[in-house]
Amino acid sequence: MSETTVAEDAKKPDSTILGTGHYLPSRVLSNADLEKMVDTSNEWIVERTGIRERRIAAADEAASDIASNAAIQALNMAEIDAKQLDLIIVATISPDMPLPATAMYVQQKIGARSYCPGFDLAAACAGFIYGLSVADSLIQANQAKYILVIGVELLSRILNYEDRATCVLFGDGGGAAVVGPSSGDGRGIISTHLYADGSQAKSLYIPAGGSRTPASEQTVRDKQHFVHMAGQDVFKFAVKSLSSAIQTAIRSSGLTPKDIDWVIPHQANIRIIDAVANRCNIPKERFYINIERVGNTSSASIPIALDEAVRNGLVRPGQNLLFCGLGAGITWGSALVRW
Ligand code: UT7
User: How do beta strands 87-91 and 320-327 pair?
Assistant: First the structure.
């Protein structure tokens, strides 16, 4: 496996997460609902994935609406006014529209200053970690003070609800974090490690609707605008790569698995989480898991899980948190944070 590592050594944190937030649409799509839509069963879905239900956005909700709801909560927790933001990063593969970036709509909805820069980041399930890494680097370089990093997805809009191999897995939602300067007490983002392997690009992709195969009546008829996935290939890649990423993150910071208080993993499949926990020698009880209720929300899954764990009081000051995620690209990565 070829690796590109952006932060190899442990460092004193320059940036820290000042506040988190999340938003889940109110409509629940249960496994029983899916049984009426495709040839599947609650037993299969629970046993093979760990998912019991997922949320589906309302017809009038778009990515920027869900993102802004999560962002406002994160800003409130951080006690930062939206006008203080220097950058808005929206990690998503289901933006409001191809052009302009969803970050532009978020800028307007949350009341950020009108010249606050922003962009969308398409790294799928690793998107939030990629965003966190960019934010950390810019703060470290004194290019920004406060950066809003959002992961948001309306995957229900890009799923084929006749394809049981994908439609049972994914859901909608958004999570956000305000990243700012560390106060120098050793708490903050200790390391981020980003990886990608483009040779695996077609194991999880949307074939049409871009410049390679623009939208046409035929592509719509052939359902080429929906997510296609070679599930088993991604599964195997995920177990191997996430385990390796976790081990690298721990080792490069001079820690051991025992030092990790919480792993906040991307929630793709409970069997992936089980296998990774085993390989990394970290008890499963130290993995925060909400896949049963939320399903796989790609870029949004880590920040949603993080905010739940923070608001539930599970995450406490001084604890070591390890985020890890892998998705289309294939992209993957880790972030080690001392809370
Ligand atoms: O977040 C982005 C990254 N994505 C992932 O990490 C996902 C990784 N992959 C997975 O989680 C799993 O591969 C899946 C959950 C997608 C599939 O589970 P699996 O155990 O790998 O199933 P499979 O693809 O090997 O299919 C086994 C059987 C097949 O039937 P046959 O050919 O054995 O008769 C499938 O057609 O299960 C069938 N199947 C289903 N049956 C009932 C596939 N989907 C369903 C379904 N309900 N929803």
Answer: unpaired
Candidate list 125, 167, 280, 324, residue with the active-site label: 125
Listed residue (151, 93, 158) closest to 299, CA to CA: 151
Q: Read off the pLDDT of residues 218-247 as tens digits, 9 standing for 90 and up.
A: 999 999 999 999 999 999 999 999 999 999
> Does 235 sit in the ligand 1 pocket, CB within 6 Å?
yes
pLDDT digits (tens, 9 = 90+) for 127-171: 999 999 999 999 999 999 999 999 999 999 999 999 999 999 999
Read off the pTM.
Answer: 0.96
Q: Which two tokens stand for residue 226?
A: 């929906």
Judge if the beta carbon of residue 40 lies within 6 A of ligand 1.
Answer: yes
Query: Of all protein residues, whose CA lies closest to atom 42 belonging to ligand 1?
Result: 40
Q: Let me know: does 272 contact 235? Beta carbons within 8 Å.
A: yes
49 ligand 1 Cβ < 6 A: yes
What is the rounded CA–CA span in Å between residue 67 and residue 151?
Answer: 7
Contact 150, 303 (CB under 8 A): yes
Q: For this structure, is 31 an active site residue?
A: no
Within 13 Å and on the Cβ side, how many CA atoms surround 143?
A: 11
Distance from residue 49's CA to the centre of ligand 1 (Å): 8
Give me ligand 1 centre to Cα 121, in Å. 28
Chain centroid, CA 321 distance in Å = 15
How many Å separate Cα 177 from the centre of its chain? 11
Determine whether 76 is an active site residue. Answer: no
Q: How far is CA 152 from the centre of its chain?
A: 8
Any ligand 1 atom below 6 A from CB of 219:
no
